[in-house]
């Protein structure tokens, strides 16, 4: 599969994640690296925000409108 998002693009990771004792809903992130597909063949990315950097699957991201 080819990657839907590009390096430098801003995306959202819908849902709830936790940073310390605070919950963050619909976090805004920047794509910093395109990574190889995971075992299921889905593209993966490294994304970052003020809270840090992490790896995610493409299905976990949405475009910023």
Description:
With 65 residues, the protein is mainly beta. The chain has one domain (10-63): SH3 type barrels, CATH 2.30.30. It contains no helices and five strands. Strands 4-3-2-1-5 form a five-stranded antiparallel sheet, with no helix packed on it. A hairpin with a 2-residue loop joins strand 3 and strand 4 (52-57). It is globular, with a radius of gyration of 12 Å. The chain starts with 9 loop residues before the first strand and ends with a strand.
Give the gist of this structure.
With 65 residues, the chain is mainly beta. Helix content is 0%, strand content 58%. It has one domain (10-63): Roll (SH3 type barrels), CATH 2.30.30.
Termini separation (Å)?
24 Å
State the total count of DSSP E strands: 5
* Parts with pLDDT < 50 across at least 5 consecutive residues: none
Number of helices: 0
Major sheet details: 5 strands, antiparallel
Mean pLDDT across the residues is: 86
Report the radius of gyration as a whole number of Å.
12 Å
Q: Based on Cα principal axes, name the global outline.
A: globular
CATH topology, by name, is SH3 type barrels
Task: Reconstruct the topology from this structure.
Blueprint: E1 10-19, E2 22-35, E3 44-49, E4 52-57, E5 62-63
Antiparallel strand pairs: 1-2, 1-5, 2-3, 3-4
What labels describe this entry?
mainly beta; single chain; globular; 65 residues; SH3 type barrels; 5 strands
């Amino acid at each position: 599969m080819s990657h839907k998002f590009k390096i430098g693009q801003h995306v959202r990771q819908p849902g709830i994640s936790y940073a310390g004792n605070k919950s963050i809903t619909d976090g805004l992130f920047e794509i910093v690296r395109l990574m190889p597909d995971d075992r299921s063949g889905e593209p993966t990315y490294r994304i970052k925000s003020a809270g840090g950097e992490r790896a995610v699957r493409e299905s976990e991201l949405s475009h910023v409108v």
